[in-house]
Amino acid sequence: MTEPTTRQTDLWLDSLPPRRQRLLVWALLGIVLLTVLVVIGQYGFFGPDEPRYARIAQEMLERGDAVLPTLKGVPWMEKPPLLYWLIMGSYLIFGFGEFAARFPSAVLAVVTMGALYAALRPVYGFRPALLAAAILGSGGLYLGFAGAAATDMPLTCCLTLGLLGFWQFLQRRAGANLYLWGACLFFGLAALAKGLLALIIPFLAIYPALAFTGGLRRLLHPRLLPGLLIFALVAAPWFILMYQREGFHFILVFFINHHLARFFTTIHHHSQPFYFYLPVLILGLLPWTPVVVRLPNLRHALQQARQSPQAAGIVYFAGWFLIPFLFFSVSVAKLPGYILPLLPAAATLLALGLDRQLRRAGRLPRGSVRVASGLFLLVAAAAPVFAWYRYHLTWQGILLGLLLLPAPLLFLWLHRRRRPDQALLALTLYLLFPLLTAAPALFPVVAPYHSHRLICREAMTLVSSGQPLLIYRHFHHTNDYYTDYTCTPSIPSLTALIGYLENYPRQAYVLTRQQHMAELAELPDWTAQPLTTRGRSVLVRLNRRPGGTS
Prior knowledge:
There is one protein chain. By secondary structure, this protein is of the alpha/beta class. It has three domains: about 10-365, no CATH class; about 365-450, no CATH class; about 455-545. It is about 65% helix and about 5% strand. The protein has helices at about 10-15, 20-40, 50-65, 80-95, 100-125, 125-140, 140-145, 150-170, 175-195, 195-215, 225-245, 250-265, 275-285, 300-305, 310-330, 345-360, 365-390, 395-405, 405-415, 420-425, 430-445, 455-460, 475-480, 495-500, 515-520, and strands at about 70, 75, 470, 490, 505-515, 525-535, 535-545. It has a five-stranded mixed beta sheet. A two-stranded antiparallel ribbon has the order 1-2. Helix 23 links the parallel strand 3 and strand 4. Helix 4 crosses helix 5 and helix 6 packs across helix 16. The longest helix is centred in the first third of the chain and has 27 residues, at about 100-125. The relative contact order is 0.10.
């Protein structure tokens, strides 16, 4: 779809020879991969999922069982095994640890970017394809999950490759059947990444696009039958083996509890309002949301979709984003990672909107540039305040604020010199540059607020198997992982702690919050000696007073 331009432009990206274009793409992918790989080993697991999935993969590898996921030896049937398999392979290369557990997500994030660029370039050209990959790979939400041992990135990669392959099939390109069968293969892998979403998201993305463009008959294509067979051959064996092992209990846990109940009920405690994903999307796509003032003309694309592959592509990517976005918004359970598979489509639409603006005007609107610049400066100024308020950091917060300035300043300078495409590429460094440069100084002091890796490892050098680490009013998902699942559950009260201490004749070690130290001082017959403070956590040695009851 070619729209008339109001101004002839001579943009830098248009003048690059093919060899330099390829170098620029590889540089983008390399910078993103390098950034994520530099960061992912510098902080411990956080949240409930990372330590859980890392441990499950470790147990499967140690047992030599690639079928049944277990946690502490108990079957864990919430998620399919693709992430566990990937982490197991990474463990074989790098050994157990955070870097190895997160390595697959980092690689798959870059693979997804490269696939998006490769699919878009033949249809829309170099500049929109590059911008789409840059927007996807430098957004905050995407970078966050690129460095997480979670199922979201494997699902996103498999669904993206599948949906892009199906799009190639719809364009009737040479080898269209191979694209169709490849798409079905990746949809099968997506089913092994997160279950039924591998069917739901493609259906919600593909069906409306075909309905609006008059292509529903393509779903009756005879070559689809081999594709469905490929999907079944990839996805079905694990589900069949699990049913043979666990019977109806597997159906109850996997499909009913973690699919239907998650969508319709609050049983998993992730309920959020309908509009939850709107701010998640706006913040998750920073720094790009402030500079996008135009999106592709969807009405015009619908009118031209049957004649123009570019217009049909816009309809396809709009369906890929909009309908699943509404689906996730209706769901009762909501987490930010759920919309990660929609970000490739969102990045494409934003890139096409930016390209349309550049083709029509040769520059970004001044109002948009001013709003974006003001927002970037505000974030840089707020970074030291946030660092002091949240983590009690001074110079690290100032450093972070300073490191958030170069990319926006370069963006402004390049735009004033009428190099808008270079200015947009400068925004790719907005988060990547601070992560690369500040990670060694920032992560060691911030990580203890979100992960108990360091303090639990210190505690494990002191406790014994007969007298494990006591957790007092300090539940955290990483406690179990970093104590090799030997610590006590979170002890809820001082009375309950006294009951535990009856089994400790002379000495005990307790992990608690700083705010609960005064309560430990009230323990009869015991003295509390703080040993280590990490973030808001304190490792305490309790010594029984002479003459105290044992």
